[in-house]
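idk why but the lab printer keeps eating my pages so im just putting this in chat instead. protein + EPU:
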Amino acid sequence: MDKIVIVGGRRLQGDVRISGAKNGALPVLVSSLLVDGWNTFHNIPDLLDIKTIRKLLGSLGVKIEGEETVRINAGGITRCEASYDLVRTMRASILVLGPLVARMGEARVSLPGGCAIGARPVNLHIQALRDLGAEVTLKDGYVEAKASRLRGATLYFDISTVTGTENIMMAATLAEGTTILKNAAHEPEIVNLAEVLIGMGARIRGAGTDVIVIDGVKSLHPVEAAVIPDRIEAGTFLIAAGMTGGDVRILGCNPLHLDVLIARLRDAGMRIDVDGEALRAAGGGTVKSVDVKTLPYPGFPTDLQAQIMAMMALGNGLSVITETVFENRFMHVSEMMRMGADIVIQGTSAIVRGVAKLRGAPVMATDLRASASLILAGLAAEGTTTLSRVYHIDRGYQQIEKKLSALGADIRRIAGF
Ligand code: EPU
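predcted complex ->
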């Protein structure tokens, strides 16, 4: 298995271009299941998770061509089942459930099970499909859903769920009548998906707010659309600039999607200038300790919690980082402590007492964003950090070591351990 080796202490400088959003591209590619014909999607990132969704869609009989621009045709679906092997490696595979039932009248999708960041059930997806009239049973570890045609209904999500909202929004586009999704998630990726579906002829309003209203239509048509830039990748590079006292221009991002992070980083002493679709970020020397609480969008993203913690590990005081979205997303803490960080977990909060220096160490990635945080810690640390289990980072960051070394980092991948 590959490892990433970082010699810390280099100041990052220069331009970096942001790729398409992983969590935008996954539902957009899946939305092709709703349509008979060739769709064209631009700005698809080159990631392990994208390979997984392509494999899954391919196993259903969907034709897929191209890389950054993908042409995709679900005209000849031959199978309505997502196997355990695929769902286990990527929970977002559950996204095929709603579209398959809506278009094909049936779906069989493995239950994802737990994962490194929490139990992460899919009960809300299942309940919402039942509310739309599907007959849903759980059998042999699989969700089996059937409906001759889904019927619109008013639904309420107890918890704001991103893929749950996406799954049901897709399903409802082909339902009979109107669906009202209450307490819908607000993430920009949901707005991106809604725009793609509207381009296919779906009738959706309210995406990006608490209440999404979908008037079902009989069929949808192919579309050409683009995936939004990855706000989590952009945020990770912003933090990298801050932690290394660097000066980095982050190109091709949407600064509006990063409002709360930018505010926190300015509080922490960084200078950040917004210029259209670019951000210029400069570290201000001392990192001021700030408190952070993760929340659904537009709150501070849980997908940047580990990365801001790496920065706060070098803060000038005490920082309280509270995780409210997932119950077990502090797996990076023990690895950061091996690098000299001073962190105590108390319930859902991590109390981070800033230290003057982190020291390089061998560390292990436990999930995607934890890996990113350890790379950030390694960039700022004294000495060499070796990150193992790097397949986690490959799930969601396109060529991170190449992008960082172009900014002057001393980082390389060693193949085949
Ligand atoms: N939840 C339930 N029941 C459900 C669905 C969710 O209890 O049926 C709970 C979850 O366990 C969690 C909370 O609701 O505590 C929110 O989870 P959500 O459903 O919003 O998460 P998700 O849709 O599975 C997406 C992203 C995650 C990101 C979260 C939160 C995709 C493909 N994944 O997951 O991304 O952390 O939203 O913003 O969009 C990542 O990219 O590293 C990543 C984990």
